């Protein structure tokens, strides 16, 4: 396939192998960091925090995993299998919580439900001053926030799996005397289990990578421990070693996700069904509508209304030149990262298409593993590597050239931050591009080559125009993900390069919810763009 193109462009292998090396570099650094151990810091961590970090992490994983499965599966079943009032718009509206970053929902929930918040204040005025609600600043509060943010992973995959099962299977179950509940538990749920498992694994990986929400709740996990070790003990090596421990949990979630994907296809599925199977009537119908609407209100509508209220109440007063500089830095970082990541994603997709050998496919798969690496892990891995290069090579070389008091070039540079974005969001860019590439029939470039077109001409005239929709979608998704990324930006940003996410972290750390409303609402509005893209893709399926 494409013999001329592949013969004249053998460097596709270099693209694939180089991209895989970028992902493997921070992992190798994590292993190298264990060559020496700071016994004082590690002794302190083992005596005071390590058991708590492991316990908190396991509780988060278990709680969020169970929560997203319960919420995502139930909502996916209702919107795909049942007919009730409002189903058609709730079907896509339930994806809107994707637009809210976890750290934004975290401080909104604390602002609403804390002891001094409006809800408890109102209830105390009705029920007496002795009334107390369960504290939102707890393990349960963190789990609830993360479940509300990450349930769309399971919802989207479970809904697609249920819709793909076909009408004949459920009708056969009904003919055999199975109740809707029995049809769900015995037929639909086992067939959708691989998709549900993959969605839950993705949610768990995002939970392990989260820094903003747990820091708002002051809930210690490995991500917060990495940050505190770096900025508290000023020990990059120990922070890197903590990141390697966190990576063990991530690899377990990644293994579960790969296992789920590997068994995703179920034999004997019927044709996809055009509509709902069960028509709910009376109280059941309104109960289903109320349940879906309640989740949407708690996860999206109420938080957005609260942000708007804070903005009107006093947040607009902080719309000054500093805010516009934050906007500029945020947009510039997002645009540069999106351009670099999508460009490499296009090259990776083409290399896999034009060199369809096992080694290339493996290299491309490794290059797409960056999405599983938390931002904090990438940050400390890259910083550790760049710190060694600066201290061992670049600083002595600049001193040899006569530079007085040479400063590090790579550590704390914009290049290091863009590299972290590139590694982390490569899979986000690769997916839409690869999907668009799969729709291009091999006969088109082969026909162009038979007419005497060179390899570059085929790329320019055939591939790139047809890949343009996927490139635009990939660029949009990467752009918004970069805007919302907090841990990598917080740890690696150059001096003076504060972004909206960094500003939100600083304000929420101080408990200043009103001032945080303006940048938070900006990120939510921008985050709606990829959600719209996701809804359109889901609608086409």
Give a structural overview.
The chain has 541 residues and is mainly α. The protein folds into two domains: 261 residues, MetI-like (MetI-like fold), CATH 1.10.3720; 256 residues, MetI-like fold (Orthogonal Bundle). The protein is built from 24 helices and two strands. A two-stranded parallel sheet has the order 1-2. The longest helix has 34 residues. The two termini are 29 Å apart. The relative contact order is 0.14.
Secondary-structure map with pairings?
Elements: H1 3-8, H2 12-32, H3 39-48, H4 50-81, E1 82-83, H5 87-93, H6 102-113, H7 118-127, H8 139-163, H9 167-175, H10 180-209, H11 212-216, H12 222-232, H13 236-262, E2 278-279, H14 283-313, H15 321-354, H16 358-367, H17 375-400, H18 414-424, H19 426-438, H20 443-450, H21 455-484, H22 487-492, H23 500-509, H24 513-540
Helix pairs in contact: 2-13, 2-15, 2-16, 2-17, 4-5, 4-8, 4-10, 6-8, 6-14, 8-10, 9-10, 10-13, 12-13, 13-17, 14-24, 15-18, 15-19, 15-21, 17-18, 19-21, 20-21, 21-24, 23-24
